[in-house]
């Protein structure tokens, strides 16, 4: 059973391959929704304040980072390097875009700052996913076997 869960996806039948990828994308999106819940009732802390209450906590951000890094490592180990980016980084970035674009900004002119925030945090998520996937990819047995065969030919 362990070999089935950790073998490269390219060696698995296509329904299993796509079901695993779909499950990974769903888990990534679910992790974002659980760790960074949306509170549509955001309101100013005090009258005439631009600081709003938020359900986002430091612990939630850390939990999201750990969950996304674990998913990235799993898919980096099992699949080609581009797939973790699509499966793990894109769902949270899309949900963040929806969340930020539907939330009304403060009336003082900073309402258009959300695209920059979204771009920065999406880049941060994507970079973390790629690094975790690349590190996990180094532990693939088939890559080690290929490197040994190339070294023996030289």
Largest sheet: none
Mean pLDDT equals 81
> Radius of gyration, rounded?
20 Å
Tally the beta strands.
0
Instruction: Quickly give the structural class.
Output: mainly alpha
Helix content: 55-70%
- Number of helical stretches of at least 4 residues: 6
Which residue ranges are poorly predicted, with pLDDT under 50 across at least 5 consecutive positions?
none
- Encode the helix/strand succession as letters: HHHHHH
Distance between the termini: 36 Å
The shape, in one word, is elongated
Percent strand: under 5%
Can you walk through the features of this model?
By secondary structure, the protein is mainly α. It is 69% helix and 0% strand. The protein has 6 helices and no strands. It starts with a helix and ends with a helix. The model has no long low-confidence stretch (mean pLDDT 81).
Q: In a nutshell, what does this entry contain?
A:
By secondary structure, the chain is mainly α. Helices cover 69% and strands 0% of the residues.
Which features does this protein show?
154 residues, mainly alpha, transmembrane helix, membrane, transmembrane
Topology readout:
Blueprint: H1 2-6, H2 14-35, H3 58-78, H4 82-102, H5 114-137, H6 141-153
Helix pairs in contact: 2-3, 2-4, 3-4, 3-5, 4-5
